[in-house]
Structure formats: C-alpha cells, structure tokens
Design goal:
Blueprint (H helix, E strand, L loop, with lengths): L4 E7 L2 E7 L5 E11 L2 H14 L9 H10 L4 E9 L2 E11 L10 H14 L10 H20 L1 H13 L21 H14 L1 E8 L6 H10 L11
Helix pairs in contact: 1-4, 3-7
InterPro entries: Metalloenz_LuxS/M16 (IPR011249)
Protein name: Zinc protease
GO molecular function: metal ion binding; peptidase activity
Length: 236
Amino acid sequence: MSETLDRIIQQDGYDVHFIHTKKFKTIHLSLKFMAKLTRENVTKRALLPYVLQQGTKNFPTAIKLRQHLDELYGTVLAIDSSKKGENHILTIRLELPNEQYIAGSQDLLDKGISFLKEVIYQPKVVKQSFDPTIVEREKQTLKNKIEALKEDKMNFANNRLIEEMCKDEAYRLRVHGYEEDLEAITAENLYAYYEEILKNDHLDVFVLGDINDLNVEKKVTDLVKSNRKQSSIKKK
C-alpha cells in the first residue's frame, strides 16, 4: 500500500501543500487564488479562465498553447472558477506525466513548471491590456454560458433559492457572474484586476504525485515566491 506524506510550507500570502503518493504516474500542480466574493469582482473572475486559456507571450494563440501541451507528453491545462463560502476561487491546474516513468522525458517537470509560470504571469498582453479581440470573444462565450444556465430550470431554481436565503451574504452571488455586468468589462480593466489578483489574493498551491525524487519542493516554492509581493493578504 502506498504511503502518503503531507507537508505544508506557510509563507506570507501563500501556502504550498506537498502530497506525496505513488497512486498516480502523473504530477498534479494546482494554484488556487482566493478572494472575498463581491458583485464588483465576480463576473471578472468568472471571465478570466476563458481569457487565460487563449494564449501567452510565447504561445500567443490557443492552438499554439495546445501544441506545446502535446509536446509535453499530453500535459493537461485547466482553468476554472468556483466559490467556497463567501470566497471566490480561481484555480489554475496542470497535470503532466511523471518523468520517472517516461524514457527520454528529462526535465519534463521543469518544463511544465516553466509553462505554468508563463500561463499565470505572462498572459497575452497588449500595452498593459489583455488582447481586446480575445476579451470580447470570451465575453460572448461567458454570456452564452450564463444564458444556458438560466435555461436549466433546476439550476435556476437553486440559484434563486440561494439568493433569497442568503440575500444579506456574499454567498448569494453567482459563481459564473452576471450577464448585465459584462458590458462594463474591458480588456484594460480586466487585466488591471488580474494584476490585483496576483498581488493580493491568498494563494494555495497543491503539488500531488510521486515527487520525493524530483526536488519539486524548491522548484515550486521558488516559482511562487519570485512572483508574490510581501503585501499579499493573509489567509483568513
């Protein structure tokens, strides 16, 4: 039976969780950015997963992004949003094969971490702004998602129930945001808000897999530490 060892490194504004297990032949890296739910930020946070998966500085299109993932032995990138209590969580995760099990895949973890760093800290930007074309297109994608959820009668009824029961609490806010708030979102103010997330959100990093022999602790801690400001909020 495989043993699982847990280790948490607590820093100013972020925690890194290392979970060692031999159950998987892949390494899972997840970064969870958490902030209080507000009506002002929830639609922006719901839109960001769509935008961030459309390109980076060195992989400026979704196609080139996917091609690079294929080159990393079918590594999977996923970005989504959720809520927990009165907090909103933006999750960016990468699942890549463990190089210990693939011949000729030297430095695959390093390449995966480097790619994840680019997705988070070097998205496709035009003069301190996300690409306006991408943002407008993904606003429509999110709008379609919100409209589809309204057509789901069970989901709609559940949302209305929560809104009534929790009308004085942030938990009432819808995780996918609000169609009427999309118009005010621009490529410029969305990027400015994303920079605030990187600076101010509490960050939990999870590393799971057979990681004992990969020196992963230093690699991941250095990745996060080099891109966090000391003013980052503490976890409540």
